[in-house]
Amino acid sequence: MPAAITMPVQYKDYYEILGVPRTATADEIKKAFRKLARIHHPDVAKNKAAGEIKFKELNEAYEVLSDPEKRQKYDQLGANWEHGAEFNCPRQGARRGGAHFQGGASPFEFSGTGYSDFFEAFFAGAGVHPGGFRSGSFHANDVARAARGHDAEADILVTLEEALRGATRQVTVRRLDADGETERTDTYQVKIPAGVREGKRIRLTGQGGPGRAGGPAGDLFLRVRLAKHPDFQVEGADLHYDVELAPWEAVLGKKVKISTLDGSANLNIKPGTQAGTVLRMRGLGMPEDGGKRGDLLAKVCIEIPATVTAEEKKLWEQLAAKSSFDPRG
């Protein structure tokens, strides 16, 4: 069996990317992600190409730091490496570039999937599914027996907009030999179908591990991971959205313009709307099987001003004195 191969991986400071201290709470991490993601989302960024790169970087950082298990693993790793330092990641038996083989056999490296080498080396849920033999494990009497190559699998980060409308992404795959040298590099135009769901696998037939003794090559699968969005959460084909209202807007009613994946829409807030009320906007969610779309579910959140001026305080006091409303009555 070949010796383990090590290769440099650039350390990513996810706390610095989100602009939060290492002591940040889960809520502080979420708020930082949402603030920055709204600025750098490709649909609103002044520089679309740069925004797309930054948005994916923010997603990667948030995916790790918002997951307690991944964050703990990251913190343990980060304590051992200086910021910006390169360190070696063992190739043999480890994930690298989104896919790995047992026994150190011809790993794949990917670019264009939306994840950095650092993330893929330590946090990606990738692997290889043996469709035939495992290199380094067959015996001499198997040499003449044809066997299908491995099926390799990697994650691909897809935005909600790409999942809604469909897209084409350029993905580059480097195939490495047991010594870590490039055997060949292939570039694919990968079609992301409209309506693709989390966990869906896109198959590149015959692009996995090579077969043996004339056997067919395995397949390469790209497993869809939906990028976190600053405003929406996905549940099935429905999108969930928190609509933030001032107290007087909930009391008096208001037409509120909210963002959607299609642009924007007006949401009618009726007078006396309560916190926690969920308003359904039909057909503004993700595609369903059969061509229909799910709904956008807007949950009312009432925001209280953290500070008020002296004049505002006086008005609130007048309202408190005159109002007969008792929230505990």
Q: What's the layout of helices and strands?
A:
Elements lengths: L5 E5 L3 H5 L7 H15 L7 H18 L2 H11 L7 E5 L17 E4 L5 H6 L4 E3 L21 E8 L1 H6 L1 E10 L5 E11 L8 E4 L15 E7 L5 E4 L2 E8 L1 H6 L1 E7 L2 E7 L8 E4 L14 E7 L7 H13 L7
Parallel strand pairs: 5-9, 11-15
Antiparallel strand pairs: 1-2, 3-6, 4-5, 6-7, 8-9, 10-11, 12-13, 14-15
Mean pLDDT: 83
Radius of gyration: 25 Å
Major sheet, described briefly?
4 strands, mixed
Question: How many individual helices?
Answer: 8
* Share of residues in strands: 25-35%
Give the spatial strand order of the biggest sheet.
4-5-9-8
Please bin the fraction of helical residues.
10-25%
Give the CA-CA distance, first to last residue: 75 Å
> How does CATH name the architecture of the largest domain?
Sandwich
Return the structural class.
alpha+beta
How would you sum up the global shape?
A: elongated
| CATH domain fold name of the largest domain | HSP40/DNAj peptide-binding domain
Strands, total number: 15
Give the total of domains.
2
Within CATH, the superfamily of the largest domain carries the name Urease metallochaperone UreE, N-terminal domain
> Quick one: CATH class of the largest domain?
Mainly Beta
Poorly predicted regions are 1-6, 90-106, 130-140
N-to-C series of helices and strands:
EHHHHEEHEEHEEEEEEHEEEEH
